Amino acid sequence: MAIVKMSSFSLFAFDSERDDLLHELQKFGYVHFSDLANDEVLKGEGLRDVIVPEGITEVDQDIANIKYALEILSKNDSRETGLKAMIKGKTNFTLEGLEETAGAYDYKPVYESLKDRMGKVESLNQEEMRLNAASDELKPWVTLGYPVSSMKGFSQSEVFTGTVPKKLKDKLMNELLPFDYTYYEVISEGKDESYLLAISSKEEKDAVNEVLRNNSFSSIKISGEEEPDKEMHKIAERLSALKSERDAIKAEIKEMAVHLPDLEVYYEYLMNKKVRLHASENFLRTDSVNVIRGYIPTEMAGDFRKAVEASQKNAYYLDVKEATDEGDIPILLKNNKLNQTFESLTAMYALPQYNEIDPTPLLAPFYLFFFGMMVADVGYGLILLVGTAVILKIANLSESTEKFIRFFFYLSIPTIFWGAIYGSFFGGIIKIPGLIDPAKDYMMILIMSIIFGLVHVFFALGVKAFLYVRAGDPIGALFDAGFWYMALIGAIGFLLPMFLDLPPAVKTISMVVMIIGMGGIVVTGGRSANTVVGKAAGGLYSLYGISSYVGDFVSYSRLMALGLSGGFIASAINMMIGMLSGMGIIGILFGVVLFVGGQAFNIFLSLLGAYVHTSRLTYVEFFGKFYSGGGKPFNLFQNASKYINLK
User: What angle do the packed helices 205-214 and 166-176 form, to 10 degrees?
Assistant: First the structure.
């Protein structure tokens, strides 16, 4: 239960054997390459960057093509979803099996066929848009009973078609009245405009045009040859034909969804190939030799050597030695099955540095305890326990999903435990005996919450002291943890006689301990400063930090608040169900719906609230006392799979 011990390696191998080497190392998996591209020392000795293989461009294009196909075909995916998909799970592959399966598949015929069909669909869509636009343009002229072609090419007259604003229509009509050889007609009216047809003789056309222009006439060219209503009918027939043609193509595309599993496997193959090719960017080279450095788990050094040997036909140089605390060593955590499920919480905050401790085993028991206290319902815990247990038993889960489900499986146990203490079963719909009644004993729960907070914070200070001692600095443990213990415990002992009947000596002794602790904090808190004034100011500022401890202890009142709120919401739901049950069969049916929906919603809120607030107590009140983090993750030499489980 710790940070995995790492060994650094230096490898000199011929450039001609780089592909074979990377292939073997990817099968091995547990290799973290150091980026030598910015190593000025090595470059000063004449080493150059390794040229990324030209094949990477082809791989990137293949990946883009596969993504295009997956994006389209996934919309027509008929495979199981939801719970059925979770039970079935993703297909398991080894890297060798993945390469063998992908090597026997050619995605290009599927891609080309799909691209061709999508091109046709796009062309049909463009034609449909054009025809709809033409139909919209013709709609205002549908009552025009003349073929459009008959209004073109007059030798003795001029035809005007267009719109004028409605507010100017009457004015325009009056101004056109004096013209003897001009015909005009309002064909239709829109929201703000009138559609006008005017036919004028050659002699009057210029004057008519001037009148139209003065009345904001906007010319419109009517498309087509026949009457507008016939043109619209032709468009409608073509639109219907387009729809049938497009539906037929889409049906063909839907049938192509059977290729999705093969495309997904090939995508994973390409992504791993891309990772392998890009790894070269971390290397340096001479004319014929690659220089490679990185890290591997110490316990896997033997398997690493075998992987290197399997790829090298010629001479090579490999040096593997246990990593020291110096350098940017990648972090890989190794915990038992219980603590593994809490590693994501540590990583979400920050991975430890190589010379730190893994805080995961330390946070796990407190997280379980606090989470259970915040949810605290036997019914909710049983649903969580049974649901997660069934999923873990019957479903083929990926490693990350399996850890997530196990996380809530473990959390269900303290939820049941605290629910039994509170006597809560779905908020009291079934009465069970409990040791504490939250509705009456809320002050007791509040005091318990503060006490649990004291234990949590004092444990964190103890870890801090241990780290100082482990680092060979017991004096630092006294200064930064011991004096704080004295100040806090003394302050608590000094205040307790105000609430409890304790001997006067308790208050006196506690005051002495508190003063010694506070004095020690003032004297040593600023010891890193260079001046006397700086040391004094730093010490006083450190003592001021005692106010943050008060805030920390108050923060643990959320253990009470969330536990009570969830229980009261559940009780309110049960109360409404009781009211509905007296309304006959309809009331009972509504009551069942309310119970299922209300309790499900409350479970969700309770679990979410407990997850967030327990994480907050861990990150701020607990980690804030001893943990800094800042480690970088160990990057496996494989792609994080999306569609398969890569073993």
Answer: 150
- Placement of tokens 């910015």 in the chain: 38
Q: Where in 507-603 does DSSP place strands (E)?
A: none
Q: What is the pLDDT of residue 396?
A: 86
346-377 pLDDT, tens digit each:
999 999 999 889 999 999 999 999 999 999 99
Residue 429: helix, strand or coil by DSSP? coil
Share of the chain above pLDDT 70, in %: 100
Which residues lie closer than 8 Å to 376 by C-beta, 6 or more apart? 415, 418, 419, 421, 422, 424, 438, 563, 566, 567
User: Do the Cβ atoms of 142 and 186 come closer than 8 Å?
Assistant: no
pLDDT above 90 coverage of the chain, percent: 53
Q: What is the DSSP string of 439-463?
A: TT-HHHHHHHHHHHHHHHHHHHHHH
CB of 647 within 8 A of CB of 282?
Answer: no
Strands (E), 109-250: 157-165, 182-189, 193-201, 218-219
Helix (H) or strand (E) run with residue 114 in it: helix 108-138
- Name the pLDDT band for 62 (thresholds 50, 70, 90): very high
pLDDT for the residue numbered 1: 53
Alpha-carbon separation of residue 129 from 116, 133, 246, 563 (angstroms): 20, 6, 13, 59
Residues 6+ apart with CB under 8 A from 179: 200, 204, 207, 208
CB neighbour list of residue 212: distance below 8 Å, 6 or more residues apart = 160, 162, 164, 172, 198
From CA 340, how far away is CA 356, in angstroms rounded?
A: 18
Residue 494, both tokens: 């000094």
Helix pair 399-422, 378-394: axis angle to 10 deg = 160
Distance CA 352, CA 331 (A): 7
Residue 53 gets the label, from left (phi > 0), alpha (psi -120 to 50) or beta, of beta
The per-residue pLDDT of the chain, averaged, comes to 89
8 — phi, psi (to 5°)? -90, 150
Which pLDDT tens digit goes with each residue over 411-466? 999 999 999 999 999 887 888 888 998 888 889 999 899 999 999 999 999 999 99
| Per-residue pLDDT reduced to its tens digit, 542-577 | 777 777 788 888 899 999 989 888 888 888 888 888
d(CA 440, CA 445): 10
Tokens at residue 545, please? 């930090």
Backbone dihedral region for residue 578 (phi beyond 0: left; psi -120 to 50: alpha; all else: beta): alpha
Q: Is 357 helix (H, G, I), strand (E, B) or coil?
A: coil
What's the token pair of residue 329?
């060593």
The residue type at 343: E
Q: How far is CA 70 from the centre of its chain?
A: 21
Average pLDDT over residues 87-100: 87
Q: Which two tokens stand for residue 411?
A: 């959390």
Kindly give the pairing relationship between strand 182-189 and strand 193-201.
Answer: antiparallel
Give per-residue pLDDT as tens, 142-175: 888 888 888 877 778 889 999 999 999 999 999 9
527 closest CA partner among 476, 473, 467: 476
pLDDT at res. 507: 82
Please enumerate in sequence order all residues whose Cβ is within 8 A of that of 419, keeping only pairs 6 or more positions apart, or say none.
375, 376, 377, 378, 379, 380, 381, 425
Lowest mean pLDDT, pick from 16-20, 127-131, 323-327: 323-327
Q: How far apart are CA 125 and CA 243, in angstroms?
A: 9
